[in-house]
Structure formats: C-alpha cells, structure tokens
Amino acid sequence: MAAAFLHFVLVMAAAFLHSVLQVEDHCRRSPLERLPLHRCRALASEGDAASVYRSSEFAASTNGREGGWRGAGYNPNFENADEYPPRLEHVQAPSAKEIDLNALANKNKREQYTVEDKRNIYAMLLARNGEHGRLKKGVLDSVARDGNCSRRCVSRIWKESKLGGGVNSIKNNLKLKTGRKKMSLDIEALEAIPPGERTTIRQVAAGLHMSKSTVHRRLKEKVMRRVSNELKPSLTEANKKARVAYCLENLEPSSLEDNPTFKGSFNKVHLDEKIFYRTRKTQKMYLSNREEAPKRECKHKNHIQQIMFLSAMARPRYDSQGNCVFDGKIGVWAFVDWVQAQKKSANRGRGEWELKPSTSVDRNKSREYIV
User: Fold this and answer.
1) Is 68's pLDDT higher than 50?
2) Which of 155, 223, 245, 255 has fewest C-beta within 10 Å?
3) Phi, psi torsion values for 199, nearest 5 degrees
C-alpha cells in the first residue's frame, strides 16, 4: 500500500515538473515562434520570408520587453497597426491640423437658401424622379450631392412642393426681423444717477435695472462713454491772480501788443527730487532656457532701503546750423552722508567711514546740494 502511494506521488511530481518546463520554454520563445505551424507557413508563402525572419530576430532580441512584440520603435499612429509581422521602420505621424476656435464659434451653422436655389433643387428632383409622389431610391442622395446641400433640405423642399401643390409653394419663409427687441438705454435715467454712484458697470446696471452685459454692449456701441475724472486743486482768487502774474512775467515785453511770445528761458535751471527703492520685491526679466534666475536677497522684504536723487536740467542749446551744442542735462546727485561704522563686520572695521543714504532730506540738506 505504501509502495503504491509513493509511486502515485512520484508520477504527479514528474507531471507537474514537465508542465512547468513547458511554460518556461513557451515564455522564452519569440512571439513569432509561438504561432501555430500552419500560420507560419502561410506567412512564408506570401513572399515575405525575409521580413518574417528579421521580425523574428528583432522580437527574440527584445524578448517581449520595451514596447512588446512590435519593438521599442513602434509608432502607435501607424495606419497599418493590425498587420503581422510589423514593419520595423519608424513612420512619422501626420501633424495635427490647426483649429481656429474663433472661426468655429462665429460660424453660422445653418445656411439659408434663396427661393431661386430651392426651385433649382426642385427642378433637379423633377428631372430625376418625375411627378411621382414618392422619391426613387438614390435620387435624394444624388440631388443633395450635386446641389451641395443636405439631404434634409432636399427632403423638405420635396415635401413643401407636394403639400403646397407645385413650384409656387416653394419659398423662403425667413422673416426680416426675428428675435427679441433690442433694449435701449435711457440717457435721462443714466444722467439722473449721481456721478459717484456710477463708477463701475455693476453700479450703472443696478441704477438702470438692466443686466451688466446689456450695459457693456451699449458701451461698445458708444451710446455711453467711459472717462477718467481727475482730482484738481481748489484755487482761490489769490491763487488765480498769482498764476496769471507768473504767466505775464514770462512774456517778452516787446511782443505784448502784436503777438505775445514767451521768453527763451535760457537762464533757468529746473530742479526735481525723486526717491527710489534700491530693488523691488518682484522683478520680471527675460532669460534663456538654460540659465537660472538670479538670486536676490535682503534683510527684510518690507523694509527695503530708499535713496533720494536730485536732478538738474536746462533748455538745450543749438547753433545757427541746428546742431545741438548743449543737451540741457546738468546732472543727477544722490543724497548720501559719510558716517562712521558703529560695529565691526566682515566688510569694514569699527570706526571706518562709509557712504550711506541720507535718512532725511530737509531744507538745509537741499540748500547744501543746490548752493
């Protein structure tokens, strides 16, 4: 009994080992070698034995990896993707066509045919079908193809002629004015809104009880306009007289009677002061694809150092031939002070003199630079 059981166990182990070896040998084979023998013979009989051999070598070298049995260079856009064995050459996929979304959005999808066009289509139907009440097979497609219109349009023309009683019933029923009426903007109601309460389209739409899109369309049609209202200084009578007196002082006395002319102002220098930050928090710049953005650092982004400049400028001078002998640019100076360092650092020792921007620019500082 024990001998019979031992024999049974050995037979089952041998059968299992044989099946494992068959599976391993099957996986080791190329995809072409896995085909049945009659399929390989059919491929060889088609006169492409050399390409079958090359495909078998390529598939065996890849062993089913890096792209499957079609190989690493397989293009999924290949139009003959179902053929076997596959072609090894790389096929360039056709470039995608550019689509103009604006043209598609503004395209009128439904074409309107004139009465003459419809009656010409009806004449083609009569010539190919006759006066029969039902269209023959193929007439509808041929007329739609030759008339460059849809089958639905041809069918509708045929039904209109049968229901109306002939060619006189075929006409274009398109009305001259369709859709809802245009909403007009009441100018008097717009002017009645206080100016401070119509600074945005939303406020104007709420005051006129209209939608924002309607108000925006009226704005594009120039029924209303958008302006930038500037804040101007309030001048007293003394201010106005001072301005007029300043203008009169800059006029040539000899030209007041005939043609008032301003003086040359060649003896005047214009001064202006401007304060700048040493850098910005964010700075746009254009870089190439291979360079990195520069690293900018500071102690605190909200406390960037400021510096004030003084610029002086006069009127340019020209000679008798029109050549510029003096461009009028006198100079630009920074408001800075020489101070002693309070602490020692890696850049300088304690007590050394260094140049720093002025913390305050008052009357005395300006007089120091000007005089």
Assistant:
1) no
2) 245
3) -90, -15
Give the integer Cα–Cα distance in Å for 103 and 108: 10
86 neighbors 71 (Cβ within 8 angstroms): yes
Dist. CA 88–CA 95, nearest whole Å: 21
Kindly provide the b/e burial profile for residues 42-80, where b requires at least 16 CB atoms within 10 angstroms of the residue's own CB.
Answer: ebeeeeeeeebeebbebbeebeeeeeebbbeebeeebee
Residue 166 token pair: 């002939």
The one-letter amino acid at 57: E
- On whether the CB atoms of residues 148 and 167 are closer than 8 A, the answer is no
Are the beta carbons of 210 and 190 closer than 8 angstroms? no
Give yes or no for a contact between 328 and 312, defined as CB atoms under 8 angstroms apart. no
Is the confidence at residue 30, as pLDDT, over 80?
no
As a whole number of angstroms, the distance between CA 71 and CA 350 comes to 74
Give dist(CA 118, CA 166) in Å, integer: 12
Whether 58 and 71 have beta carbons less than 8 Å apart is answered as yes
The pLDDT assigned to 80 comes to: 53
Residue 185 and residue 211 in contact, taking contact as beta carbons nearer than 8 Å: no
pLDDT, averaged across the chain: 79
- Residue 330 has a CB neighbour count (10 Å cut-off) of 14
d(CA 239, CA 250): 17
Helix (H, G, I), strand (E, B), or coil: what is residue 324? strand
Confidence band for 182, pLDDT divided at 50, 70 and 90: confident
151-164 and 139-146 helices, crossing angle to 10°? 110
Residue 353 is predicted with a pLDDT of 93
Distances (CA, A) of 340 to 104, 178, 334, 343, 364: 72, 84, 19, 9, 21
pLDDT tier at 119 (50, 70, 90 boundaries)? confident
360 is written with which tokens? 């305050």
Q: Against a cut of 0.85, is the pTM above it?
A: no
How many CA atoms are closer than 13 Å to the CA of 10, on its beta-carbon side? 6
Tokens matching residue 250:
């800059």
Q: Which of 353, 317, 357, 350 is nearest to 334 (CA)?
A: 357
* 207 and 197 Cβ atoms separated by less than 8 Å: yes
